[in-house]
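Hi support team,

I'm filing this because I wasn't sure whether my run with fe (ii) ion finished correctly. The job status page said complete, but I'd like someone to confirm that the output block is well-formed before I use it downstream. Pasting the exact inputs I used:
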Amino acid sequence: MTATELPSSLIPTLPGHTYTDPTIFELEQEKIFEVMWFCAVRSADLPEAGNFRTVQIGRESVLVARSRDGALRAFLNICRHRGAKLCVEETGTVKRNFQCPYHAWTYGLDGKLVAAPNLTSMPDVDRVEYGLKTVHLREWLGYAWLCLADEPPSFEETVQRDVRERLGNLDAIGNYQVSELDLGRRITYDVKANWKLIIENFMECYHCATIHPELTEVLPEFADGYAAQYYVGHGAVFGEEIKGFTIDGSEGFDTLSGVGADQERRYYAITVRPQVFINLVPDHVIIHRMFPLAADRTIVECDWLYAKDVVATGKDVSRSVELFHRVNEQDFEACERCQPAMSSRAYAQGGVLVPSEHHIGEFHRWVREVTSAKGW
Ligand code: FES
Ligand SMILES: [Fe+2]
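And here is everything the job wrote out:
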């Protein structure tokens, strides 16, 4: 059945092979992840000069490090001499420099080439020119967002526009003062599913009544299948008996200081293309960063952020973490259930979206457009 033959309440999804084909994944790496702003590292994970973290963005390994001047900087994690991978660890601390394990070219925390065997006999080698290749970096919401493009797109017109279009304005997220919050818990999920399945799942709530009993208890309107993302500016209201965004609806922590009465008993969910999900609730913020590694594998790092005093005084965050951790497990299990079906002949033409999922069609249109894969 072609799209034009579908009943009017249904619209088509992308075809199955777009979730499995390595050439399409490579196209997405090139046209999406290596071009757009990518939320890579929580700034506070690298508090001291010399702290570093490596992340995979598209087909590149990127090194993010705290410099002596206190700024975060990002570089391609590749030695300029003969191309060895500079840092092989995912995270760590260097005293002063990064030294390549192959022939010992040595780079400062600002990326400059500071030493190499026999470098003094090569006075014509410019230390900046042969320093590490810089990657654009911008901090927002307490995270370092990186962009591999030579000329990055406007941050305001991409990342912040996604937030604005969802919430109506940027103040609605500014109230949570996300960059002032501290990390209460981080859980990393290794999901055997294509990144698009994870985004699509996050964008809809048609599945909420079936797979999220705890979440639906806290947010009764989710039982109707309309996600908070369906309406501009809408936050799902807590059920009447619900005291906090916790696994059993019991009390959470004090409402974050900037959050006003209009946001106090509500849940907001935002998708920032291409790899970030943000959840706002009165007493904490949950930020998911996806790292798509292959057509059928995505790492998701999820941070639960709380007011500084909650973390400093060692308050027990487990009941509030447990709610969304369970939601994550339920969601990722659903995505993993769908992934093998993407290569089935039953899904060759794709599936369908019901009206409460029609906004996912816009995501599909966007993916097609940016990858210019018109033949999908
Ligand atoms: S490849 Fe790094 S020093 Fe030779
Ligand atoms: Fe879900």
